[in-house]
Structure formats: C-alpha cells, structure tokens
Specification:
It is a single chain. This protein has about 400 residues and is an alpha+beta fold. The protein is about 25% helix and about 30% strand. It has eleven helices and 19 strands. The termini are far apart.
C-alpha cells in the first residue's frame, strides 16, 4: 500500500500490487483478463479493509468466482451482513461507473453498495474512486440494453467512503426491488447450455434474453456446467495436434500414431496386458490396440496414467472402439477421482467414468461408430486435463 489514510476520502486510497500469475483456466483471452483484473481487485480491497480494521469475506468461493469471471466482470465482499460489489476497470477516465446487469438484477447477486475500482496494469496501481448504492444505480442510473449494463456518471458517485461506513452503521435500506428470476426446466437449461458452449472470443451473455441467461448463471451447478463445456470446447478447438485417423490403424499404418506417442501395448507394459474385458467373445487377433502414456502432473509420477484404445472392425465401414485408462507399470492402481470422458467437438460430455480409491482401471462403455466419425477423449485429475482427438 502506498498510503494508509486517516480518513477514507477515496482520492487517497491508492495501492500498489505485485501482478498475480495469469489465469489460464478460462475459455478465451477476454475471460482470462477479466479474471486477472478481478483477482487483483478482490485481493487488494480485502487486504486494505483488514489493515484499517474492517472484517470482510468473499461472498462467493474461489471456484464460484472463477465461473462468474468466465462470463462477466465483478466480484463481491460481505461486510457485516452487507454485500459490497467491486467493479474493476482498466480505463483511465472516471466519467462513469458501469455495472453489468447481472450484479444489479439477479436477487442472489445484487449488492447493497457498488465500488468503482480503477486498475492501471502499466504501473501496477489500484484506486477506489467512488461508490453508489443499489437503489441509486438502479433508479437513477442509465440502463443500456445493448450491452446490458447500468451506468452512473461520476457526478452521482460518492467519493468519501466514510459515508459508506456510516450508512452501514445506520443500517439504511439501500436496495431497490428487482423482479424474480424464472426457474428453468432441466431439459430447457441443458439445451441452452449446449447452445452457449461453442467457443467464442467473448462471453455469451448477450446471446439470449436476460431472464433466461440469469436463470442459467445464477445457478452454481448450471454455471459450472456451462464453463466446463466452454473450456472443453476451446481446448479441442485450440489443439494443434491433428486428430488421429483410426482408419490408418485398420490398414496397419501406425507412423502418425507413433509420432503422437501411441505405441504397441507391450512396449509400455512389457509383462503384457489384456485390454479386452472378460466375457467378450473377441479373439486377440481381431483387436487392434495402441497405448499412450499421459502425463497429468510431471512432478507426481503416481498421477501419470496410460490410455489404451482398441479397435474391433465390424465390417468395411463400422468399428467398435474400447477406451481404457490403466496405471503405469510403476503404479499398482489409478489415482482416485480420475475422470475419463467422451466429448463431442462442441465439448458436450456424452459419457464419463471416475476412478475410485484403489481402482486398477476405468473404461468407457464400448461404442460402435462408422467411418469419418470424430470424437474426443478427455482425462482430468486435480484440475489438469488432457484431450486426445480421433476420427474413426
């Protein structure tokens, strides 16, 4: 902090900060930058409040905030049962405070007060330069239907934060009435999530009407689904490795597979390994199989695993595919909570299995596809994921 004020006049509340590591767990650069600014804003504001003797806590968990920043800017602190919404901006002018509609019209998100935060990434400084109440923002502010924001010019912002703490002590009612958010049926919400999951350089918040959008993102579970799908689809789209052509395996052509790390099963498991489940009436000669070492965490060898793909031709066009994950020869079992998923190109999860403690293997349900069918297989563990792309 540059200066610890004796009063809370906002012009004196300047901070310097050490830039945090860039956030990468988002589907596009806009969301990554949004998360970066909000992380600085939340951390520095809470540190400053602690130094002047005010106890605060984030309203949402870190995981919840990460999903919020995927689609909209802003963060929230709770102080004495009052919610303070922080709106960071890297704009150098202070003509107005512009707040996304989500923080104003979603009952579970709205705050008692809204703080305007200016962040200058070039000098690593931050300034709290004013605030307003929810009632003032909603009833006096200008609503822009194009970008769905409420804005309030600087003339209506209060720069002396002493008044904010006095208002809290007096327990003034500063929240205007907002309409309730409609409940979405399960099939409707899943259709909307699929619609919004396609990769894009910006948030999909303006692609559907606000009440429906609010119904999705105000639900933590649905918002997490949306963010997971968008991240998975972006990872698939951005992968520079071409999909593996499995029809080449059927022609005994493995050079491309080998260049991508797929090897003969016995080269990875010298003692041999059966990848066909007992009870299946398939001879070993009919199955074409390859295995690949998947490094999920380089510093933790016990979290490395082997993906196995086996093909059983049905006819000239159709092939049955089996996907397994096994521990490496050095490990006796898989790490728990390892997730193996079948994804479409849009990131939709069609099938998934999760390992338990001491599992020796996990396997997706065997499926049959015709020539040219594209699919993606994802392995996830502790926030780290790898995607392998295939074309039958």
């Amino acid at each position: 902090m540059l200066y610890t004020p004796t009063s809370l006049q906002s012009e004196t509340i300047w901070f310097n900060y050490d830039p945090p590591a860039a956030s990468t767990n988002h589907s596009n650069h806009t969301a990554q930058y949004t998360a970066h600014l909000n992380h600085i804003c939340l951390q520095q504001t809470q540190t400053w409040l602690t130094e002047i003797g005010i106890t605060s806590s984030p309203t949402f968990t870190p995981a919840q905030m990460a999903t919020i920043w995927e689609v909209v800017t802003g963060c929230a602190l709770t102080i004495n049962n009052r919610r303070i919404i922080l709106i960071p901006s890297d704009q150098l002018d202070r003509e107005e405070l512009r707040v996304p509609q989500e923080w104003v019209d979603i009952p579970d998100w709205l705050g008692d007060y809204y703080l305007a935060i200016q962040i200058d990434p070039d000098t690593n400084t931050m300034n709290i330069w004013g605030y307003c109440s929810h009632r003032t923002l909603r009833e006096t502010g200008n609503y822009n239907a194009i970008d769905r924001t409420y804005s309030l010019t600087s003339d209506f912002l209060i720069t002396d934060l002493d008044i904010l703490w006095i208002a809290q002590i007096l327990a003034l009612q500063e929240i205007a009435l907002v309409p309730p958010i409609p409940h979405l049926a399960l099939d409707q919400s899943q259709t909307i999530i699929a619609q919004l999951s396609h990769p894009s350089p910006y948030s999909p918040r303006l692609k559907i009407d606000f009440p429906t959008w609010a119904g999705i993102i105000s639900n933590h579970h649905l918002r997490q689904q949306l963010c997971d799908r968008r991240l998975q689809a972006a990872q698939i789209q951005s992968s520079t490795t071409p999909p593996l052509q499995l029809n080449q395996w059927l022609q005994q052509e493995f050079s491309t597979a080998l260049s991508q790390g797929w090897d003969i099963v016995n080269n990875i498991f010298p003692r041999g390994l059966s990848i066909v489940r007992s009870g299946e009436n398939i001879s070993a000669q009919e199955v074409i199989a390859r295995a690949k070492l998947i490094n999920l965490q380089y510093q933790l060898p016990e979290n490395n695993v082997v993906m196995l793909v086996s093909l059983h031709p049905q006819n000239s066009t159709d092939v049955t595919v089996t996907i397994q994950v096994q521990p490496t020869p050095e490990n006796s079992h898989l790490p728990p909570q390892l997730k193996l998923s079948y994804l479409t190109d849009s990131g939709e999860e069609l099938q998934a299995v999760i390992s338990r403690s001491q599992d020796l293997q996990i396997q997706l349900p065997t499926f049959t596809c015709d020539a040219g069918t594209a699919f993606n297989i994802q392995i996830q563990l502790n926030g780290v994921s790898k995607i392998e792309k295939f074309v039958a």
